[in-house]
Amino acid sequence: MLPNTGKLAGCTLFITGASRGIGKAIALKAAKDGANVVIAAKTAQAHPKLPGTIYTAAEEIEAAGGRALPCIVDVRDEKQISDAVEQAVSKFGGIDILVNNASAINLTGTLQTPMKKVDLMLGINLRGTYLTSKLCVPYLLKSKNAHILNLSPPLNLNPIWFKNHTAYTMAKYGMSMCVLGMAEEFRGSIAVNALWPKTAIQTAAMDMLGGTDVANQCRKVDIMADAAYCIFSKPPSYTGNFAIDEDVLRKEGIVDFDTYAVAPGHPLLPDFFLDEDPELITNKMGGEGAPPASKASPEAAGDGPIAETFKIIKGILSPDVVKSTQGVYKFDISGEHPGVWYIDLKNDAGSAGSGEPPVQADVVMSLDSADFVKMFSGNLKPTMAFMSGKLKIKGDMTLAIKMEKMMSLMKAKL
């Protein structure tokens, strides 16, 4: 863990979405220095499924040694942001650091994403970030060490990060474009940077996307808080960077990252948007040595373990499973029972069988037949198989996570 240096003593941080998760972790890290923290978030009353409110976060911040100002803020509402900014300036005398952390996520394709969800993501991620920055900038310009930090990814234009969730990617990249533009616009006065995790971080959002079982594949929010603290400790000349948490901390001399893991020693799930180029991700997730696509499945009409597994899969396909998954999977299976198989969890009531899928596959999974059986019997998670090298995936890791959720439904019968 990165020790506090007292660098942020007396500084005022305005953090959106700070009632829980990464935003709150950054607030608590700053509070240990004696910083002032404006908790700009919507949760004023306890949510039945999500922990924390702006008031409980304020209590934790003050217990950690900081001063807190909880403000009810929906970042889509200009008046609410403006009022919170004015309250912050009135109470603390100014604003030194803005953290644009508030975000909305919905990982669905174009036809499956209602415009209400599109508007929500664009309104919170893009417009909310731009608007909050705009309203804080006049006060940041008066600070001697002003920072804007957006929790957003590098601008990676590899189509793989668009094809399965175009709306979410556009909204998240909008936050990154704010970094690109504002870093130049305010160069010399305000440091404007982005921070993104190298691996998945355990938050309420991750639990909803991958289920509670995904936690062991994640790091704790502390790694993002420590990386943010490093960035805030740098001068305004450090600007226009798309920083990755682990890279930032390595440069500070941190070598033990197991302390940040939910389950030390457990393989970690890579986060979105971080492949370096299309060729690299093809090598990383592609299928060198996979059986040819045209290869027949010799046991298709027999009673081998793969055929038996697919008989059960066919028996439990339903519109509900299709609706919750929205992916076409192709399996290039090698080993003792080689062949090509597919599961269509995107069209009609779903289908599964031997050979090429009836439509283009969204994900191609290449693995040994024994590991395929283990996966569908619940003894090997796809993400764990991928991290250990037993499974090669060509496609979006999002669908691999969704496959895990589908398998949990099937486990009782397989």
SSE class: alpha/beta
| Ends distance | 43 Å
The portion of residues forming beta strands comes to 15-25%
Write the element-wise H/E pattern from the N-terminal end onward. Answer: EHEHEHEHEHEHHEHHHHEEEEHHEH
Number of strands: 12
Low-pLDDT parts are 276-302
Output the radius of gyration. Answer: 23 Å
Overall mean pLDDT:
87
Task: Give a quick account of the main beta sheet: strands, pairing sense, barrel closure.
Answer: 7 strands, parallel
- Helix fraction bin: 25-40%
Which term fits the overall shape?
A: elongated
Tally of alpha and pi helices:
14
Strand order of the largest sheet: 3-2-1-4-5-6-7
Summary, kept brief:
The protein is α/β, with parallel strands linked by helices.
Show the helix and strand layout.
Elements lengths: L11 E5 L4 H11 L4 E6 L12 H10 L3 E6 L5 H15 L4 E4 L14 H26 L5 E5 L15 H20 L4 E7 L7 H7 L11 H11 L9 E3 H7 L26 H8 L19 H12 L2 H7 L1 E8 L4 E7 L5 E4 L8 E6 H8 L5 H6 L3 E4 L2 H14 L4
Parallel strand pairs: 1-2, 1-4, 2-3, 4-5, 5-6, 6-7, 8-11
Antiparallel strand pairs: 8-9, 9-10, 11-12
